[in-house]
Structure formats: C-alpha cells, structure tokens
C-alpha cells in the first residue's frame, strides 16, 4: 500500500477553515482565514503581549496557541 503525504500550508490566498461547535446547531460558525489571522496577531500583541512575545521567540506552548486561536476567532480570550 502506497500512502502519499502532502503538506498544506495555511493560510493560502482565498483559503479558510470553518470551525463550528459539535454541541449545538444554534452557535455561529467561525471562519479562520488570512484576515482573521492578521487581526488575531495584532490583538494578541496588544492585549496579550507576553503570549505574543513567546510566539515571536518560538517559545510558545499549547496555552499560547489557545490564546492565539481565540484572538483570531472570538477577538478575546473567553475560555480559560
């Protein structure tokens, strides 16, 4: 059996990921695209500079990633 692995770098121009809750259908979908990532990075740098510094220095961890994703999707840290 021949399995081919491909590496896809996101975001690519015009690309996005739709994230939705699996718990209820009435929650909104969240779109992660280049625009959301750019705004999330700016927000993280302003509101959460320690996490942003860890990100820039490549000393990030799961918490840093969580803060980044929440900044991109929710414009704030609302969980945790």
Keyphrases for this structure?
80 residues; two-stranded antiparallel ribbon; 3 helices; 2 strands; 10% strand
Please outline what is shown here:
The protein is 44% helix and 10% strand.
Major sheet summary line: 2 strands, antiparallel
Strands of the biggest beta sheet: in what spatial order? 1-2
Separation, N- and C-terminal Cα atoms:
43 Å
Beta-strand portion reads 5-15%
Counting DSSP E segments of at least 2 residues, the number of strands comes to 2
Contiguous uncertain segments of 5+ residues:
1-8
Explain the overall architecture.
The protein is globular, with a radius of gyration of 15 Å. The chain has helices spanning 34-47, 49-56, 62-74, and strands at 16-19, 30-33. The protein has 3 helices and 2 strands. The chain is 44% helix and 10% strand. The protein has a domain at 33-80. The chain has 80 residues and is mostly helical. The chain has a two-stranded antiparallel ribbon with strand order 1-2.
Provide the fold topology:
Blueprint: E1 16-19, E2 30-33, H1 34-47, H2 49-56, H3 62-74
Antiparallel strand pairs: 1-2
Helix pairs in contact: 1-2, 1-3, 2-3
């Amino acid at each position: 059996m021949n399995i081919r692995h491909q590496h896809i770098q996101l975001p690519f121009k015009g690309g996005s990921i739709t994230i939705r809750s699996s718990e209820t259908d009435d929650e909104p979908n969240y779109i992660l695209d280049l625009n959301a990532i750019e705004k999330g990075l700016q927000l993280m740098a302003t509101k959460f500079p320690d996490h942003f510094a860890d990100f820039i220095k490549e000393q990030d961890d799961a918490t840093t990633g969580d803060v980044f994703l929440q900044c991109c999707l929710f414009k704030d840290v609302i969980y945790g």
